[in-house]
Amino acid sequence: MSSLRWKTMAMALALSQLCLFTGVEAFLSLFDIIPALPGQPPVSFQQYSGYVTVDEKNQKALFYYFAEAEIDPFSKPLVLWLNGGPGCSSLGVGAFSENGPFRPSGQILVKNEYSWNREANMLYLETPIGVGFSYSTDTSAYVGVNDKITARDNLVFLQKWFVKFPQYRNRSLYITGESYAGHYVPQLAQLMLQFNKKQNLFNLKGVALGNPVLEFATDFNSRAEYFWSHGLISDSTYKMFTSVCNYSRYVNEYFRGSVSSICSRVMSQVGRETSRFVDKYDVTLDVCISSVFAQPKVLSPQQVGESIDVCVEDETVNYLNRRDVQMALHARLVGVNRWEVCSNILDYERLDVEIPTISIVGELIKAGIPVLVYSGDQDSVIPLTGSRTLVQGLAEKLGLKTTVPYRVWFEGKQVGGWTQVYGNVLSFATIRGASHEAPFSQPERSLVLFKAFLDSRPLPEAF
């Protein structure tokens, strides 16, 4: 018998004995324990992954990956991470490419020294159904999925996940995410607060949103100024892009299947000047970012005449499509032949992108929930200028006074970015040199920001 099998059996026996003292509920998590992922380095923390059924009738099951904190997980908070799209994987993007404990490298996993599970117990959820390993046995459930359905399913997931992991029920809980998670996260938090009025289950302590979609027109139309100020488009094209046809109008027409000739001409000109050889999620990057980082599908519909060039090698996709990896993760493919970063079977209500969520952020703040909005400053998809404008406007609407004036913050002996805080409850920060996926491109600075957020402390103003 292999040593790994002995280790698994011994661990299961020890934990089953523990259940005699902690209750039958805790036994459910034993089935999801991961003794080790193929090719991973030795680690001291525990990992789990598996399914939570959120709709018995349609057999809708959401897949999760959970990495406990490296040190003293019993005292660390619980953090839920959601990626965007809508329809892209928190497992493949968040866990295995951004802030999770490992990154694939060939046939093995390498340790991410700036993993967020250094500071928290990290829970990654593939949502909605049809994303990654999450599935429904009724394929009609993939049609017409929208923000309301996603928020409801995510709420049910957390309720049932706490049944598997009752030791986390009263733990400080934070929700984080990026991109279209600017919809997912506030909408889920809103439902959690409503649920708590009936049954106090969620100990929600804060929300952090990275390069988020919060208000369609402001976020999308800030691209024109960003392109122009970074030299990506000419003066004449900037004028057309802000007067003749702005980006929110183009996206609105695109999703309704009726792009006007004038918008078609403007977008063709913008596309020619910005070039398909510049990554819009990091305008300073020289090399391609693989399809792992294609999460903002709704945010960047294919422009007229644009062909998408992706990297040939995608180590995350290769790793998660290995049979031994799927077995270790207790994952299965239902109705699809391959695990994909962004779902090809999910038919999401794309016009939901026009629903403003900045007002929901305001509701959270009024309920006493701290909110951090942060921006990788090299991202032209959801530029920092739009996010900063929205945060400033919300602070004024809520009557929040500036408690930390706009200033630089430091990571090590370098400027990590800029920050401003309102009423000690609403914060804005940039991450210097970071892309749309900030923890991928600036992992060390992102970890400093994350730790300050969890500790409710100002970002370092000196080194």
From TrEMBL:
Residues 1-26 form the signal peptide. The keyword Kinase does not apply. Coiled coil: none annotated. Its main location: secreted. It is found in: Secreted. InterPro entries: AB_hydrolase_fold, Peptidase_S10, Ser_caboxypep_his_AS, Ser_caboxypep_ser_AS. GO terms for biological process: proteolysis. Gene3D superfamilies: 3.40.50.11320, 6.10.250.940, alpha/beta hydrolase (3.40.50.1820). GO terms for molecular function: serine-type carboxypeptidase activity. GO terms for cellular component: extracellular region; vacuole. The keyword Hydrolase applies. Keywords: Carboxypeptidase, Disulfide bond, Glycoprotein, Hydrolase, Protease, Secreted, Signal. Its EC number is 3.4.16.-. Pfam families: Peptidase_S10. Belongs to the peptidase S10 family. Probable carboxypeptidase. This is Carboxypeptidase. It comes from Liquidambar formosana (Formosan gum). The lineage of its organism: Eukaryota, Viridiplantae, Streptophyta, Embryophyta, Tracheophyta.
